[in-house]
TrEMBL record:
Gene Ontology cellular component list: cytoplasm
Cited Pfam families: Glucosamine_iso
Family designation: Belongs to the glucosamine/galactosamine-6-phosphate isomerase family. NagB subfamily.
Pathway connected to this protein: Amino-sugar metabolism; N-acetylneuraminate degradation; D-fructose 6-phosphate from N-acetylneuraminate: step 5/5
SUPFAM superfamilies for the chain: NagB/RpiA/CoA transferase-like
Domain Glucosamine/galactosamine-6-phosphate isomerase per the UniProt entry, residue ranges: 14-230
Name of protein: Glucosamine-6-phosphate deaminase
Lineage: Bacteria, Pseudomonadati, Pseudomonadota, Alphaproteobacteria, Acetobacterales
Enzyme Commission number: 3.5.99.6
Function per UniProt: Catalyzes the reversible isomerization-deamination of glucosamine 6-phosphate (GlcN6P) to form fructose 6-phosphate (Fru6P) and ammonium ion.
InterPro entries in the cross-refs: Glc/Gal-6P_isomerase, Glucosamine6P_isomerase, NagB/RpiA_transferase-like
Organism from which the protein derives: Gluconobacter oxydans
Active site residues per record: 67, 138, 143
């Protein structure tokens, strides 16, 4: 596990965007695992800027998003389908049939989860998986406890997570859907490379727990320490507790 600490959030975003850029340039048909959230918006903005100046070609790229809310249509402005269109897909030359997000309104959600796993496998697996970390220590929507061999499935969201995500829902946690589809921890660990990004003092405690606490299903992000090729990108604020613990 490689931990990179940057002086500012902007440098952390740039570092992650550069790693994704390198992955896209390395292979004619890269497969990316993508995430959502405020941190990711900044990373995607950099990637879009690279594309707009002709420095990055997405035409051969395939992507799989980590998760999606149950019962939100792709056209719903709060869906992750809509988020990805707004922040990345509509601004780059990725083919629409290569951009995958779980279908939260599928008639049979279990079948959808199985289909999503099969699609990842058919694409050859994920080359680079981008991750954030939630207040509960979740990656994707793998709320505690989540088995480290779990696969794409339907999950119930913790009240802490619903509160954390309520900004897109008028700051009303009750409007945040209580269920979601998420790649499992095992699905995430199957990626050939993991890149987790966290910025801000609000992430410091859970980052420290994930990186220095027990490797435990109660903190799903701790599973990344089991991966052979994981990079953690933190700004100074997010790394503050971790640095104090490891001096």
């Amino acid at each position: 596990m490689n931990v990179i600490v940057t002086d500012s959030p902007e440098q952390a975003f740039q570092c992650a965007a550069d790693m994704i850029t390198d992955e896209i340039r390395r292979s004619p048909t890269p497969v990316l695992g993508l995430a959502t959230g405020r941190t990711m918006e900044n990373i995607y903005q950099i990637l879009v800027q690279k594309h707009e100046i002709g420095a990055l070609d997405f035409s051969g790229t395939t992507s799989f998003n980590l998760d999606e809310y149950v019962d939100l249509a792709p056209t719903d402005p709060n869906s992750y389908h809509h988020y990805m269109q707004d922040h990345l897909f509509a601004h780059v030359n990725m083919q629409a049939n290569r951009a995958h997000v779980p279908n939260g309104i599928a008639p049979d959600l279990e079948v959808e989860c199985t289909r999503y796993e099969a699609a990842i496998h058919a694409a050859g697996g994920i080359d680079l998986q981008l991750l954030g970390i939630g207040e509960t220590g979740h990656i994707g929507f793998n709320e505690p406890p989540s088995a480290f061999d779990s696969r794409t499935r339907v999950v119930h969201l913790d009240e802490v997570t619903r509160r954390q995500n309520s900004g897109m829902f008028g700051n009303d946690p009750d409007r945040v859907p209580p269920r979601a589809l998420t790649m499992g921890v095992g699905t995430i660990l199957d990626a050939r490379r993991l890149v987790l990004v966290a910025v801000g003092e609000g992430k410091a405690a859970i980052v420290n727990e994930a990186l220095n606490g027990p490797i435990s299903e109660t903190v799903s992000a701790s599973a990344i320490r089991l991966h052979d090729n994981a990079t953690i990108i933190l700004d100074k604020a997010a790394a503050s507790d971790w640095k104090r613990t490891t001096r």
